[in-house]
Every structure is written in structure tokens, then in C-alpha cells.
């Protein structure tokens, strides 16, 4: 048996050496055939056809890598096919199958997990795939039992080994790099790369043919994932489905999404209905690649149409910013009724038209002021853009208010807090722009762009170096304390870490998982101790009854003489007199302020005159991207509200954020 096995391996070793060396010479395999495509790397081609109905779908393609002491398999396939794959592996090696990586959570890639686990394998997945298998998996697995006997006879085995962005196996004989590049075919696609052999296994993040189910995808993010994959030095691509191929398939896959998005958007802009847009899809090259016309791919086109018209979840808001659902009433709650009337701020006609698409049965009433909103609130189910006591008093049955900002300290008046209305804000969506502002203020102080230093150079109109070179500081190696690790604080921490800073964070919530770029995350009891160690203190917490004036004399006294203070949150968090004292006496080095108390800061205010202070007029929230994110959140929340799904960015009215 062993002798035969050795002969088998060495024969394929010879043919594969040629294949790996030349990209044009990709082996053409028959269905279910196994080929050693590089030393110790085997590919099994699963049967599939987009045009021939007599070809029974045979699950996903499989790759296995034979290390010195064990075998690692890419994709668990369906339970039946998992058995077939294990039998095929046994013909290539007698080493134990120690690891199986699920490329994503779909049944043809993950439901064979239990079969591999019985062989003693550990199941690997990205964090998102593991989460999807844990949370949605049980129900989806039950549903799949109706379609396949092998699933009905098996059970759902969830992954045991979970990675965030990268996982490496290297025993010198083989090196395997596993990557999560972002949301592609699903939220958790894991790609497997063999740098020595220049082989990339993509799962369904790239298929060779029209096999991309898009229902769980984010097409914009998918394009970016493919671009990252294209950066790798690759000669052979093992796709999730379809024949083995070369690197050009990554470009084809990407081109399909780019052109589909462009053509669908063009159709929408021209006011076309979906069916007409589908007919108009024109990609002659697509048939050459896949065997079918692009304008027959109804589901894919529909998905992009839905994405472009706000009918699907804006995944990037959830994944990039960590916004989450509810708690808020849903259609499964007793007494829930479909809403009829929503008061909206006066929107551009195109935006109102977008809301009509996702909520055709809703009567939208545009208003220009909070007073008008209160007048129209009677009989309305929701008010967008305004939150006042008069609005909730006008309609005690009002169900939802969406505000267009993150800090809700002025909105949460007693009438609102005591009513049953659900308030949603735009928390976390301002992370990129406000954190840019924080870094801009900090860099202005440390790099000699602050007013007093600036005067010596460009403002005076001639070239003059800083008189005191020590005023130009570097951030590298310094410690930043971020007070409040919410959406904005997290983004500031990410940026500071990239500048080489050590980031310590204080936050009262024990629900936050410490990101890798944050050195320590501690409760407010540690605040004073950490202030004393920080070179930069950044306030990034909401203004509530508990946090009002939280930064006063003792906090400024505790700061290092060389430390900078940055506030991009709210002026009311700070005892401004204590701050001015510290700046005057120079017991701190300087301050960068996007917020003050009061706002606007009066013209003659002493802060304007201070040489070690940089002030911006509360502009952190302004940016090119923020308005777009805010609108997409509004639109998604309207879609959710009308459909009876949990809302995003729900404010805890008791906590005040
Ligand atoms: Zn899939």
C-alpha cells in the first residue's frame, strides 16, 4: 500500500513541477480528479456547471497541504464530499489530518466540519465566519437538512481555532499564510496563500465561472479584497468553484463587480426599472469567461441594485465602525404595527425619492424646523432630524426619533427620556473625521504649526527655523491616554498607534473588547494614575450628567508639565477655568481644542490669545465622507423601521449615549 502510494506521489510531483513554473500551463482536471499542483499541495476539482443541468453539484473545490507531520485542508465541503475528500487525501499521504480551514460559513464549505473533526482535525475560521456559524449557523444548518441527506445525518461543528487577520503555518517544508482581507463573498472569507509555490486559494471570494452567490456580500468591499489578493505574487489560483486557473481570474472577478456596479448605477440614475437594467447589462467578455451572458445573472444584478438603492445592509458601517442593532421594538413584538407616516427634514428630492423606494407605503412629511416637526408629529410614527420635548408631547405614541449627530446631551430632555420613544443617533460614524481632527490639533502643537510657533515661520513671510528646536516634538514612543473608547476614541487610538505611540484607554463599559492597537483598557478608577503617565491626553467621551466637568483642577494638576491636552468631544467635559490656569502657568505644555464652553467662543476670550493653544471651531464632525455615512444610516434605519427590524445606533436614554 505504502509503496504504491509513493509511486503515485512522485509521478504527480514531476508533472506538477512544470505546472507551478509556468502560468500558461495550468493543468486541466476532470471532475473529482486530484492533482498534486506543487510538491505536497493537492487540488481536488469538484463538479459544477453553469450551463449543463446534468452535472450534479459536487460541493467546493478542495486543497490540502502535506506538512512534515500533518495535513492542512482548505474547506470542509459538505459532509458527504468531506468523506470523499478524506478518502482522496488517504491516497496521497498517511499523515494525520490535523487542520481544516473553512473559507466561509456556507454549507458547501463548512458543513463537513463534523466529518473532519471525527478524523481528529481542528476547525479553523476567521472571527467573522466563526461568529456566523455560531449565531446563524444552527438555524441555517437545520434548514439545509431539508435539502441534503448527508447534512440531515450530521451535525454542525463550529470552529475551534479563530484568527482575526492573519494566521501562519510554517514548518520549513511548507509555509501557509491565511488571510482575512475584509468582507467579500461573505463577511468572513479566508484566503490561503502558499508563497513558496505562488498558489492562492480563494474560496468563493473568487470563483472561476458564474458561481458567485452575492446574497451575503458587500460588492464594494469585495472589490477591495480582490485588489489585495492581486498584490500577492501568484501563478496558480485555486478558486472555490470552477476549474484551476491563473492569476488573471482575480482581475476578471474584480472587473465583473466593477462593471456591474457601474452599469446598475447608470440604470438607476436614468430612472430605469430593475428588469430593464438587467436587460441592459452589457459585458461581452463575460461570456467568454463564464459561458453565460452577464445579463442573465439576475440574482447578482438584483443584489447590486438593492445595494445601490439602500435595500440591503450597509455592511461597511457595521464592520468598519462597529455600530450595532437595537434594542428597539420589532415586528415579532406583540402589538407591532406597520408604520404609516414619517416626518423628515426637508431633503433633496433625490433623497426623498430614495426613501420612497425602500418604503413605498410610507407618507413622508418634510419639515423645515423643530416647530413644524412638532406640528406634524401628531399621527406620525417617527420623526427624523429633530428631537424636542414639544415633539414627544405632541404625540405620546411616537415610536422613533433619529437625530443627525452623535452627542445627544441636548436632545435627552426629561420629556424625551420619560417617553417610550426610541432615540437613535449617528454614534461611531464620525470616527474617521473627528479622529483626523484630533491628530491635526496634536500635530499642530508638536510640529510647530501652533500659532506662536507658526508666527516665527510662514505667517511672518520669511524662512525661519524654530528658535527652540525642542518645541518640535515627535509622537513616536510617547504615550497617549484616550478617555472614552467609543467610535471616535477607537479611531484616534488606531491612528496614534500608527504614529508609534503607546495607547492607554479608559472606558466605563466592560462590553468593549480591547483592540490590538490599544495597550491597556481600564475603568475610570484608573484615570488619575494614567493621566500622570500620559504625554497626550485626549477626551473622546460623551457629555452626560456623570461626565460634566470631569476634567478639572486635580486632573490638570496630575498631568505632566510636558503633556498636551486634546478635546474633540464636548467643552462641557472640562472645567475651563482650570484648563486656562494650567495653560497660563504652563503646568501643561499646550491644548488642542475643537470644542469649548461656550460655543461659539466669544471673540475676546483669553483662550484665543494663548500661545500654546490651537483652536478649531467645532469642525471635527464635518467631512466629505461623514454626510454620506449619515445619510446611509438614516436610510437603513428607515428601511429597518418600516420592516420591523431592530434599529441601528439606539441611544441608551438612561446612560445618555
Ligand atoms: Zn459560498
> What strand order characterises the main sheet?
1-2-3-4-5-6-7
Give the tally of β-strands: 25
Indicate the CATH class of the largest domain: Alpha Beta
CATH homologous superfamily grouping of the largest domain: Ribonuclease Z/Hydroxyacylglutathione hydrolase-like
- Give the overall average pLDDT: 92
Radius of gyration: 29 Å
Please, how many helices? 25
Provide the CATH topology of the largest domain: Metallo-beta-lactamase, Chain A
Q: What is the 3D form?
A: globular
Small-molecule binders: zinc ion
List the helices and strands and how they pair.
Elements: H1 2-21, E1 34-38, E2 41-44, E3 62-66, E4 71-74, H2 79-90, E5 97-101, H3 107-110, H4 113-118, E6 122-126, H5 127-135, H6 137-145, H7 149-152, E7 161-163, E8 166-170, E9 175-180, E10 190-194, E11 199-203, H8 219-230, E12 236-239, E13 245-246, H9 248-269, H10 274-280, H11 284-290, H12 298-308, H13 315-321, E14 341-345, H14 349-358, E15 363-367, H15 370-377, E16 382-384, H16 389-394, E17 400-402, H17 414-418, E18 422-424, H18 431-446, H19 451-456, E19 479-483, H20 487-498, E20 502-506, E21 520-522, H21 527-533, E22 536-539, H22 553-558, E23 564-567, H23 576-584, E24 590-593, H24 606-609, E25 613-615, H25 624-643
Parallel strand pairs: 4-5, 5-6, 6-7, 11-12, 14-15, 14-16, 16-17, 17-18, 19-20, 19-22, 20-21, 22-23, 23-24, 24-25
Antiparallel strand pairs: 1-2, 2-3, 3-4, 8-9, 9-10, 10-11, 12-13
Zinc ion (ZN) binds at residues 104, 106, 109, 185, 204, 213.
Amino acid at each position: 500500500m505504502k509503496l504504491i502510494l509513493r509511486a503515485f506521489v512522485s509521478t504527480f510531483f514531476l508533472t506538477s513541477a512544470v505546472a507551478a513554473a509556468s502560468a500558461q500551463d495550468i493543468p486541466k482536471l476532470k471532475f473529482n480528479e486530484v492533482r498534486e499542483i506543487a510538491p505536497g499541495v493537492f487540488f481536488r476539482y469538484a463538479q459544477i456547471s453553469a450551463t449543463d443541468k446534468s452535472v450534479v453539484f459536487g460541493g467546493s473545490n478542495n486543497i490540502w497541504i502535506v506538512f512534515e507531520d500533518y495535513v492542512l485542508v482548505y474547506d470542509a465541503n459538505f459532509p458527504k464530499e468531506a468523506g470523499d475528500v478524506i478518502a482522496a487525501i488517504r491516497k496521497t499521504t498517511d499523515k494525520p489530518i490535523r487542520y481544516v480551514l473553512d473559507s466561509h460559513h456556507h454549507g458547501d464549505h463548512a458543513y463537513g466540519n463534523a466529518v473532519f473533526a471525527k478524523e481528529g482535525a481542528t476547525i479553523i475560521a476567521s472571527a467573522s465566519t466563526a461568529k456566523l456559524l455560531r449565531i446563524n449557523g444552527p438555524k441555517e444548518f437545520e434548514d439545509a437538512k431539508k435539502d441534503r441527506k448527508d447534512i440531515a445525518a450530521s451535525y454542525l461543528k463550529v470552529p475551534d481555532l479563530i484568527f482575526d487577520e492573519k494566521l501562519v503555518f510554517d514548518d520549513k517544508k511548507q509555509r501557509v499564510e491565511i488571510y482575512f482581507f475584509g468582507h467579500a463573498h461573505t463577511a468572513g472569507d479566508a484566503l490561503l496563500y502558499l508563497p513558496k509555490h505562488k498558489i492562492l486559494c480563494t474560496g468563493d471570494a473568487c470563483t472561476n465561472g458564474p458561481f458567485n452567490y452575492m446574497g451575503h456580500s458587500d460588492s464594494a468591499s469585495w472589490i477591495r479584497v480582490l485588489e489585495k489578493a492581486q498584490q500577492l505574487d501568484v501563478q496558480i489560483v485555486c478558486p472555490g468553484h470552477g476549474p484551476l486557473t491563473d492569476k488573471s481570474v482575480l482581475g476578471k472577478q474584480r472587473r465583473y463587480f466593477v462593471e456591474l456596479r457601474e452599469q446598475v448605477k447608470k440604470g438607476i440614475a436614468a430612472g430605469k426599472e430593475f428588469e430593464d437594467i438587467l436587460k441592459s447589462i452589457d459585458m461581452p467578455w463575460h461570456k467568454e469567461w463564464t459561458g453565460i451572458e452577464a445579463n442573465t445573472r439576475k440574482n447578482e444584478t438584483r443584489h447590486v441594485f438593492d445595494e445601490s438603492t439602500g435595500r440591503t445592509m450597509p455592511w461597511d458601517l457595521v464592520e468598519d465602525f462597529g455600530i450595532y442593532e437595537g434594542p428597539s421594538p420589532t415586528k415579532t413584538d406583540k402589538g407591532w404595527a406597520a408604520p404609516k407616516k414619517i416626518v423628515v427634514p426637508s431633503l433633496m428630492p433625490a433623497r426623498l425619492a430614495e426613501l420612497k423606494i425602500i418604503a413605498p407605503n410610507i407618507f413622508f412629511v418634510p419639515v423645515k424646523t423643530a416647530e413644524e416637526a412638532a406640528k406634524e408629529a401628531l399621527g406620525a410614527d417617527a420623526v427624523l432630524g429633530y428631537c424636542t420635548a414639544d415633539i414627544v408631547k405632541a404625540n405620546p405614541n411616537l415610536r422613533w426619533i433619529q437625530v443627525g449627530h452623535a452627542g445627544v446631551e441636548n436632545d435627552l430632555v426629561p420629556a424625551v427620556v420619560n417617553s417610550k420613544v426610541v432615540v437613535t443617533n449617528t454614534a461611531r460614524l464620525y470616527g474617521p473625521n473627528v479622529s483626523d481632527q484630533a491628530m491635526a490639533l496634536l500635530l499642530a502643537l508638536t510640529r510647530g504649526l501652533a500659532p506662536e510657533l507658526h508666527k516665527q515661520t510662514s505667517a511672518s513671510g520669511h524662512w525661519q527655523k524654530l528658535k527652540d528646536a525642542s518645541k518640535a516634538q515627535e509622537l513616536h514612543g510617547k504615550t497617549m491616554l484616550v478617555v472614552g473608547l467609543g467610535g471616535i476614541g477607537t479611531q484616534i487610538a488606531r491612528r496614534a498607534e500608527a504614529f508609534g505611540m503607546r495607547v492607554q484607554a479608559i472606558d466605563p463599559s466592560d462590553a468593549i473588547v480591547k483592540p490590538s492597537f490599544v495597550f491597556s483598557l481600564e475603568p475610570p478608577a484608573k484615570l488619575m494614575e494614567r493621566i500622570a503617565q500620559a504625554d497626550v491626553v485626549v477626551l473622546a467621551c460623551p457629555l452626560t450628567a456623570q461626565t460634566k466637568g470631569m476634567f478639572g483642577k486635580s486632573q490638570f494638576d496630575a498631568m505632566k508639565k510636558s503633556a498636551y491636552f486634546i478635546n474633540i468631544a464636548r467643552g462641557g467635559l472640562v472645567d475651563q477655568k482650570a484648563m486656562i490656569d494650567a495653560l497660563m502657568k504652563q503646568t501643561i505644555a499646550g491644548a488642542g481644542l475643537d470644542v469649548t464652553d461656550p460655543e461659539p467662543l466669544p471673540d475676546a476670550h483669553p483662550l484665543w490669545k494663548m500661545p500654546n493653544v490651537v483652536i478649531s471651531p467645532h469642525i471635527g464632525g464635518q467631512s466629505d465622507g461623514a454626510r454620506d455615512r449619515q445619510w446611509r444610516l438614516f436610510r437603513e434605519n428607515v428601511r429597518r423601521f418600516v420592516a420591523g427590524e431592530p434599529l441601528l445606533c439606539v441611544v441608551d436614554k438612561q446612560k445618555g449615549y
